[in-house]
Design brief:
Length: 190
C-alpha cells in the first residue's frame, strides 16, 4: 500500500550549558531508542551540526508516522513518557513541531550518513495573504513557539544546503517573521 501522506514530528532541544558530555551522550542514545516504539516508521536523534536561529538549540529528533493516531500513541507510550521525564531536567528549552507531509519520500528512512535539513518558518501575522509553500503547516501549534510552516529534506552532504536560505528569503521573505534552520547527520549505525 502506497501512503498518500505521512506525519512529520520534529523536536528541537537545547541542553543546559553545565551538563557533562557523558550525560548528553546518554540522552542522545535514549532518544534514538524511541525509534523502537512500534508506531514510529522512522526516527533519528542527535546533535545539531549547524543551526541558523537565535534560539540556540543543540539537539534534534525527527520521526515519521502513518497517522496522527500513531503519533499520539507514540507520545503516550510509556517508553516515550519515561524518556521525557528522565531528560527534562537537563533541557533548557524544547520546541515540538508536527505536520502532515503530502509528499511522501520514496524511502521513509534516509540513508545513513546523509544530512537532514529542517526549516521552520514563522509567518508574519499582519494580515498577510496566505502563501502556499510546498511544505507542511503545523497541526499542534501549542509547542511550536509561533512557527507554523516546516520542511524536511535529506541531502548527500552538508554543503548542498547553502542556497536554501536565499531561496526562502526570495520566495517567502515578505511573509516570514522568523526562520530556524537545523542541519544534522543521520547516524551511520542505529
Amino acid at each position: 500500500a502506497v501512503m498518500s501522506q505521512i506525519i512529520e514530528h520534529i523536536v528541537l532541544f537545547k541542553v543546559k550549558d553545565n551538563v557533562d558530555s557523558d550525560k548528553i551522550e546518554a540522552m542522545a542514545n535514549d532518544l534514538k531508542n524511541l525509534g523502537t516504539i512500534d508506531q514510529a516508521l522512522y526516527l533519528s536523534a542527535g546533535p545539531i551540526q549547524r543551526l541558523i536561529s537565535p534560539l540556540g538549540f543543540t539537539h534534534v529528533l525527527h520521526s515519521r508516522y502513518k497517522s496522527k493516531e500513531d503519533l499520539n500513541a507514540y507520545v503516550a507510550h510509556p517508553v516515550h513518557l519515561r524518556a521525557v521525564e528522565e531528560w527534562m531536567p537537563i533541557w533548557e528549552d524544547v520546541m515540538a513541531f508536527d505536520y502532515i507531509a503530502d509528499i511522501v519520500p520514496g524511502s521513509l528512512t534516509p540513508p545513513p550518513g546523509s544530512v537532514g535539513k529542517i526549516t521552520l518558518l514563522k509567518e508574519k501575522s499582519a494580515g498577510a495573504d496566505q502563501i502556499t509553500v510546498g511544505l507542511g503547516e503545523t497541526f499542534s501549534p501549542v509547542n511550536a513557539k509561533g512557527f507554523s510552516i516546516a520542511s524536511v529534506a535529506y541531502l548527500k552532504v552538508l554543503g548542498e544546503t547553502e542556497t536554501l536560505q536565499d531561496l526562502v528569503k526570495e520566495k517567502v521573505g515578505d511573509y516570514v517573521d522568523g526562520t530556524i534552520v537545523v542541519e544534522f547527520v543521520v547516524p551511520l549505525s542505529s
